[in-house]
């Protein structure tokens, strides 16, 4: 099931995406009663996907991100795979949705894309045993962990490098039925392929990451976990269109703009 969050005529709602782009009239949204973090019903009231504005599929209290979770990416940055997961936060103000602009930060001259599988938490959880990880996950979406690489190199803490406004595009929706174990993940910039990998190449799979994170903190419904990026990260410039595509989920597209 694909669950989207959207606005239409000034109203915000969740809906289940039905159909494919190849359908004669395109996909439609069946508006749901309530929200996707509890039992819900489809209203039967449907609206064409083309008539709405897709929003970030969730509004996370926090985004917990994992660094260097693909060996080839760790190597391209000149480092080894760490003995324990590198964990950092991206603030809620960094989150934007599909089609939203990414403002190029004024304090950086080297901004990179990082295509990632994002895990969306479905229920409050802490100290989750590995065998119950799937029970606390609502689903998965695409993410771009946009990074000011020069700032990351210059500062010991990554708060500015990873947390600036617009640095965490997610979307286009949450897919609840996909298995994250071995999915193709790709990033293109202006239609040119930059990254291509598979989630099977993660050093630590989704289950291990959730266990590790929840040993320390409570995750809330709607929180997002970024699982790391494959090799091939590279520069973005104002005017670039960057797209993250994950097999079985969809494509997240954003344009980089010069910040006013």
TrEMBL record:
Q: Which UniProt keywords apply?
A: Hydrolase, Metal-binding
**SUPFAM superfamilies per UniProt:** FAH
Which residue intervals define the domain Fumarylacetoacetase-like C-terminal in the entry?
62-256
Q: Does the keyword Metal-binding apply?
A: yes
GO molecular-function annotation terms?
A: hydrolase activity
Q: Which InterPro entries match?
A: Fumarylacetoacetase-like_C (IPR011234), Fumarylacetoacetase_C_sf (IPR036663), Rv2993c-like_N (IPR018833)
Coiled coil region boundaries = none
State the superkingdom: Bacteria
- Asked whether the UniProt record includes Metal-binding among its keywords, one would answer yes
Ranges for the Rv2993c-like N-terminal domain?
Answer: 1-57
User: What is the protein's given name?
Assistant: Fumarylacetoacetate hydrolase family protein
Organism source for this protein? Streptomyces lycii
Lineage, top ranks: Bacteria, Bacillati, Actinomycetota, Actinomycetes, Kitasatosporales
């Amino acid at each position: 099931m694909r669950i989207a969050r959207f606005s239409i005529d000034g109203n915000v709602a969740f809906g289940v995406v039905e159909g494919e782009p190849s359908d004669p009239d395109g996909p439609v949204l069946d508006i749901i009663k309530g929200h996707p973090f509890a039992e819900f019903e489809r209203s039967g009231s449907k609206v064409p996907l083309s008539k709405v504005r897709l929003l970030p599929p969730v509004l996370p209290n926090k985004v917990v991100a994992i660094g260097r979770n693909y060996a080839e990416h760790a190597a391209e940055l000149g480092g080894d795979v760490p003995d324990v997961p590198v964990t950092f936060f991206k603030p809620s103000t960094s989150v934007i949705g599909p089609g939203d602009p990414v403002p190029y930060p004024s304090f950086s001259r080297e901004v990179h894309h990082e295509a990632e599988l994002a895990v969306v938490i479905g229920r409050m959880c802490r100290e989750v045993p590995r065998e119950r990880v799937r029970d606390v996950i609502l689903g998965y979406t695409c993410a771009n962990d946009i990074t000011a690489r020069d700032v990351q190199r210059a500062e010991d803490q990554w708060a500015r490098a990873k947390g600036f406004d617009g640095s965490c595009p997610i979307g286009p929706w949450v897919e609840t039925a996909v298995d994250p174990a071995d999915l193709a993940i790709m990033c293109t910039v202006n239609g040119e392929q930059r990254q291509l990998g598979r989630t099977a190449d993660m050093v630590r799979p989704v289950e291990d990451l959730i266990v590790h994170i929840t040993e320390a903190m409570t995750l809330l419904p709607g929180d997002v976990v970024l699982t790391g990026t494959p090799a091939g990260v590279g520069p973005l410039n104002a005017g670039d269109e960057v797209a993250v595509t994950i097999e079985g989920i969809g494509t997240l597209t954003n344009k980089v703009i010069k910040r006013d």
